[in-house]
Amino acid sequence: MKNNHIKLIAILVFASANIFASGNKEKKKINKIFKPDYVNLQYAGNLGLGSVGVGYISQNEKHNIGISYGYLPESVNSVEVHTVSAKGAFNLKKHKLSERTFVNAYAGTNLLYSITDNTYLKFPSYYPSDYYFANAVHLAPFLGMKVGSRKNSSKFSYVELGTLDYYLFNRLKYNRSKFIDCINICMGISIPLNKNTSTDL
């Protein structure tokens, strides 16, 4: 039994030594995979009065994904709302504005989870069964335009026109509002967390 303990300790020490020896290499790999490319700050839109998040850009710079937290205070809309978002977007072809800047359009959607009064993933039992759709989660499609740095694609500012799935549903099914009333606008900036350079233009 004692020999088994000694063997186990020896294996753990050996494994730890290997991990420590290759620690820098593994740390670089992990950072490359998980470290965000930028911090995102946004004003307005479907994420609340303001939001903050992190984002990632694919190696070919055609796709962006990110997560954000947004806040809408009660003083603005008579109800306090916390929103968590997962965002996906695909970039269209970049256009060179100058030696330092680019512009490109993009499209995508947010998956929103809102936390406030009377929003539910599953409605309480006192609501009619299967009558209401869950109203805490929504898709929020958008079209956007961003202007950024050609030296670092993680550095950009943007404007987006967006909507919500239930706005479109009510507009198409019930014709209760004008299409323009379904649209909102937001703007934001990104703060790079890396030093990568872009040479595709």
In a nutshell, what does this entry contain?
The protein is an alpha+beta fold.
Question: In words, what does this structure look like?
Answer:
The chain starts with a helix and ends in a 9-residue tail after the last strand. It folds into two domains: 1-34; 37-192, Beta Barrel (Porin), CATH 2.40.160. The chain has four helices and nine strands; from the N terminus they run H-H-E-E-E-H-E-E-E-E-E-H-E. It has 201 residues and is α+β, with helices and mostly antiparallel strands. The model has no long low-confidence stretch (mean pLDDT 80). It has helices spanning 2-21, 23-34, 74-77, 165-174; strands at residues 38-44, 50-57, 63-72, 81-91, 95-96, 101-115, 137-149, 156-162, 184-192. It has an eight-stranded antiparallel barrel with strand order 1-2-3-4-6-7-8-9.
